[in-house]
Design a protein that fits this description.
With 452 residues, this protein is mainly α. The chain has three domains: 2-44; 61-246, no CATH class; 308-448, no CATH class. The chain contains 22 helices and eight strands. The strands form three sheets. Strands 1-2-3 form a three-stranded antiparallel beta sheet. The chain has a three-stranded mixed beta sheet with strand order 6-8-7, covered by helices on one side. A two-stranded antiparallel sheet has the order 4-5. A hairpin with a 4-residue loop joins β2 and β3 (166-173).
Length: 452
Amino acid sequence: MAFQKQERTDTRYRHVVHLFALLRRMEEDAPGTLHPTVVRRLESGTRLSHIRRPGEPEFTTDEIRAMRGAAHRLVFSALRAPAATSTRRAPNPDVAVALHVLWSLSTGEPPEVIRAVTFEDIVATTDPTHDAAAAGMGHLERLIHLAERDAVDQYAVTFVKARAGQRYERIYRRANRAAHHAITATVRLTGPAASRGDTGAVWLTSADPGPPPLAERADWRDLPLEVWIARHVHRRPISLPHVYRRFRKTATTREALAAPTRYLRDGRRHTPGVFFSHYTTSEILRASAGRILVDAINEQFDNAVRLTVITPEAENLLQHGAHVDQVDDATFADLEQGTLETTVAACRDPLASPHIPHGHACPVSSTGDCFACPNALVLKRHLPAAVRLAELTAPERAANIEVWKARWRAVHESITQVILPAFPPEDVAAARAAAADVVLDPTLHNDLGEVP
């Protein structure tokens, strides 16, 4: 424990966990092999703690664009080289790293999982014509034949997570363009060299410019991403650390933002527990979550602060002396006399508008905003104006939907979802028939983009 506190690494913790697992297996296979004291000690577990390193940030969109561009340029140049397949030479280390980058970004799998893929794990599906032409070929020969002719409709790739003991298959169709292209390029560049060595290994490199068949398995300890970035990514600086596993974080964040519910329900990348424990440190996810929370709060506030709708039944009760909290007697008296009328509705206090400091006349009383204002009072007589405004502010009439959302969405939804449903259908139908005769303020017509 003292050494672990001093080193601040998980090395000793992992050693102890592995030793405990081995001893437990020995006791399970042959009960009584271990001394009873050892068995009891195994039951209590290790006193060492798991030290988890801080979460690493995703690459930014600009960083991903710069690295993907560099990777594409290297791979494209390698594919265009005359000796790419004719000499059956494996790609040079920089091209191997470029292929790894493209796999990481397109599949979102961890580096160790990508590096464990063999050609036996890649199955290609094609149309009957190409299938017949490849009849009698071996698995790798057929794979290379189809890839070189761009005849693969889809790839089925089997991934293996050794530590978790998981084996799963993913399908990459032509619609999954990035992954499909990355796999095709890898087959074309490393497949011929693999066929000479009969190893089935996908990740082969050949640094020696001598004659083929010089190829060896990629040793990723000698292929650091940092060196590759320094050599080939010059458009912009890339944030530290330069490690392959950050690509996984970037892909996972992108998927979670695109469809969070499906991502958590699927559990393919992580269980919800792992995701919330280790991925919520992401600045991008936190920023997105903050925006969602603020939008939700604003929406709930807008829904809570509603105008007052006085239906014919409620108006009749008030006329016969009923008392309600929403409309006091003095306000209803002014409402009946017509002294609270605006151009489209009624306002309980025009000098207490939420749109301007107290004591000043409301500046939006003629613009239709009354129908989304908490000060508004809406009666049956205001329905024609409401119907007319609902027609004019319909989203399908908007020239720019983003402008509509910012300016007219609240008004339109208040009318269609709150005001009109509160009245009997026959009253709404009568108002619809009279809506064409409603005279709106000319400035309102101009705001809506119409000529009065």
